[in-house]
Amino acid sequence: MNKTVSIIISLGLFIALGIIFMDGPESTQGAKIKNGVQYINILASGGYSPELITAKSGIPTKLIIRTNGAYDCSASLVIRSIGFQKILPQTGETEIDLGIPKSGEPLQGVCGMGMYSFQINFD
Ligand SMILES: [Cu+2]
Hints:
Elements: H1 3-27, E1 30-34, E2 37-44, E3 48-49, E4 52-55, E5 61-68, E6 76-79, E7 84-87, E8 91-97, E9 107-111, E10 117-122
Parallel strand pairs: 2-5, 4-10
Antiparallel strand pairs: 1-2, 2-3, 5-8, 6-7, 6-9, 9-10
The protein binds copper (II) ion.
The site of copper (II) ion has 6 residues, from loops.
């Protein structure tokens, strides 16, 4: 094989892998910091996942609740400490601004019936 061709192929592979790895964490659940804003991702479907998240305190934080064909009561979400109560769309993303969370003040979300819950602990 010609040296230039093999360099081009290696470069292409390298870039493709880079894109895969860069794209990877976007879809995972949990807390992630991007441009100084912390995003906490939770999936609501037959309960909440993950149910327990550890996030950072003292930085602007947004909670993203994702639903994907949710027909159960996990789509009816209540977060008492911030006065949030809403029926989430069956499919979609709901962004909830959590402001700047304080350390040692966990946030708890429950479904409308109090059956399912999740908790976010702030370090
Ligand atoms: Cu419920």
